[in-house]
Amino acid sequence: MIRRFLCFLWLVLLLPLAACATAPKVHEYRLDNGLKVVVKEDHRAPVAVSQVWYKVGSSYEHDGITGISHMLEHMMFKGTEKHGPGEFSRIIAELGGRENAFTGTDYTAYFETLEKSRLPVAFELEADRMRHLKLDEKEFAKEKQVVLEERRMRTDDQPRAKTYEHFMAVAFTNGPYRNPVIGWPADIEALTVADLRQWYRQWYAPNNATLVVVGDVDPERILTWAKKWFGPLEPSEIPPLKPRTEVEQRGERRLTVKVPAKLPYLLMGYKVPVLASLPEDRQWEAYALTVLAGVLDGGESARLATHLVRGRQIAAAAGAGYDLYDRLPTLFLFNGTPAQGHDLDELEQALRQEVKRLQEEPVSAGELERVKTQVTAEAVYERDSMFYQAMQIGLLETNGLGWRRLDEYVDRIQQITAAQVQEVARKYLTADHLTVARLQPLPIKAGQRPPAPAGLGGNHVR
Amino acid sequence: MSVKACFALFVGLVLAFDVWAGPKIQSWRTENGVKVYYVHTPELPLVDVQVVFAAGSAWDGDRFGLAHLTSALLDTGAGRWDADAIAQRLENVGAQLSTGVSRDSAWLDLRSLTAADKLDVALETAAEILAHPRFARADFERERKRLLLALKQREESPGQLAAMRFYQMIYGDHPYAHPSEGEIDTVKAMRRQDLEDFHRRYYVARNALVVVVGAVSRTEADRIARRLTDALPQGEPAAPIPPVPAPQHARTERKPFPSAQTHIYTGMPVIRRGDPDYYALYVGNHILGGGGFTSRIVKEVREKRGLSYSAYSYFVPLKEKGPFVAGLQTRNDAAESALEVLRRTIDRYLAEGPTETELEAAKKNITGGFVLRYDSNAKLADYVAMIGFYGLPLDYLDRFPREVARVDRTAVVEAFRRHLDPDRFQTVLVGGGAVSRGDGEKQ
């Protein structure tokens, strides 16, 4: 949930991340107070991206306070003892910079893009709000309304987003990915400044953060600036996270979501491991699942587009996705819309047949080669965006994997064999670990008003 | 190219950036008459190529969606290759190809590695797609059905319904009025032959330009441009788009919809690309509703009152007058008061103009951060395509911050008064709060 116009949630969820084989050198430091600093040089333009990543997101939350990480993200722009509400944005704007922030299941991150010599200002402001946030009662009351509007816009009035929210809540029983990043409406409404203060104190500390800088910079100078501004901040005692390991799923789960909509929609998710959850000798599985996602949905030549959208024309759209860098075991996702004259049953059957085929026969040498070529090319293309490079570093550091994993990515993908792809398909894409959600459209009647809010916990405020 | 519209906010140190001059755009014509725009960016072994035609939805005629569908069919079959073969050829070499349209233009974007064996395959495929698309019956039927479903899905969204209605209200019978994707009835009535005719008329050398940005030499860029367009017939440039008549009087429409939020748009057609007033309007709007959290609309609607998640205003300069749009979305019971705040904020700005402090802050932001708008190869290619398509000066990327720095308070006040007239604003509300007030204001 980015504070403003973008949504990284789906990006992170559905796009396999790729890194660069011949990436320029990365410099890593750690300050005495525990702040990790990672710098990557990119001298194409006289600008730099600075991102501060905190190890906290919706998967760190518990029932009753869901959405608190995202809410705190909003409040981080509402002033410190030194700088009043809105000052952060005003100062960065005056310097010609861009600033914003985003919250995901496993992280909260704040960023500035600036002319390179202006970076100290970003450091000063970020350091200030890392430990000296004001959390004003009045500002909070208004911002809560803004977040509720954000929720209405992103989820409540979006049939597919709503389906996804319900789907995750059914797919996970006790694992924290069951809660939406933005939070459940009743939880958002019931949050207090005291809740936020506690959350802030607990997680916003130098020893729970990574500062990532990518751009036309000198790493030693970045270190000097980082020491100057972040160095004096006190670390916190970060409590170890409770495991909350998802209980094993014992059989297929199905749900129907009925909302006013024009088209039906299907979501399917198989429980799968991630890099961080696999022992060293099984980590190839995460890369094999990534290749599998590429075979199914790596462009117009991939199987879903070729077989279901064009060939049999059962789907108007169909996709598959997996993110090996998630912090906790995740879902291998399928989604789709039936083509005209076809229904959700046929689409689901067709997707299951694709899974079955992956289990029964190895992918062809040509397909495998194509996926690998795409991964290699994307590793070059991704270097075109400083912001994305910084995001990858921040994400891997925050999820406990370390940025060095990026350097391995292309090689590890290249090593995957057809037999390994088949093996993970057999091992993980099994019906007993599957959840299926169907969006069943209710009619949208012209001129119809929405139903009245249904008591407490509804989506409507006062 | 609305895609390439900018919400950008930026700025800073004019001095620091003067040292770093903008990228040098070179331009020439191929023997075939195609204009080429080229920037050398040697840092990464990739190249972004765009072929742009004056073939956007403004040339749909009464077949709304024709430009869009033509563009969507291009890579589903060309020459001796079907869609599968095309996809495999491109993806075997790691190339990425996409096509699209806006109201003004249609484009093909190609991103490739510069290694000769890979780039050659990508170019050969793209050239065939542009010159010899098959428009096979089966592909046509399939893509039309998919488009129809997308158009149906559009009706799930109060925001999209409001945006569509807004354009119809401000443009009336003008070709900018209908959405580029078309409408269900017109797409249903579309024939394969319409696409072939459209392609034959508009995908021609004299209606095209090629943008090459990447790690290739000028000679190589020229070869790329020729390779992509040599098979195109000479043809004729597209006919001009008719001028846009201004709406005669203000109107407000309220369309109930079963959603938790009501989406609001207000504005009118205003400005052509290349109009010298654009700099003053751009700077002025940055203060009004284009500068993100520092802009007046965001402060009034979101920061002071918590009424909306996103609230904004922007200008979209097009070949002919593109719109000024102000908008927001809010909970149903706040719709009328939010609209009132939006209107008051605009009215007050028109009456008083910006303060000197606001103006200085906006200018610093825009000029100082201008380089951030093209700090990647992909963004630079988009900018160069915009400059080429609208015939802006080749030094536009240097000129823009200079012109912005020159804008003063009087220029902003006068440009806003000259171009914006709230008595002609068209306003639409779609959502659960869009209740007719029974005072005859509806329609």
Automatic annotation (TrEMBL), chain A:
Residues 1-21 form the signal peptide. Keywords: Hydrolase, Protease, Signal. InterPro entries: Metalloenz_LuxS/M16, MPP/UQCRC_Complex, Pept_M16_N, Pept_M16_Zn_BS, Peptidase_M16_C. One of its GO terms (molecular function) is metal ion binding. It holds the Pfam family Peptidase_M16. Residues 191-374 form the Peptidase M16 C-terminal domain. One of its GO terms (biological process) is proteolysis. Belongs to the peptidase M16 family. This is Zinc protease.
TrEMBL record, chain B:
Gene3D superfamilies: Metalloenzyme, LuxS/M16 peptidase-like (3.30.830.10). It comes from the Bacteria. GO terms for molecular function: metal ion binding; peptidase activity. Residues 36-178 form the Peptidase M16 N-terminal domain. The lineage of its organism: Bacteria, Pseudomonadati, Pseudomonadota, Gammaproteobacteria, Methylococcales. It comes from Methylomarinovum caldicuralii. This is Zinc protease. Pfam families: Peptidase_M16, Peptidase_M16_C. Keywords: Coiled coil, Hydrolase, Protease. InterPro entries: Metalloenz_LuxS/M16 (IPR011249), MPP/UQCRC_Complex (IPR050361), Pept_M16_N (IPR011765), Peptidase_M16_C (IPR007863). Residues 191-365 form the Peptidase M16 C-terminal domain. GO terms for biological process: proteolysis. Residues 325-352 form a coiled coil. Residues 233-254 are annotated as: Disordered.
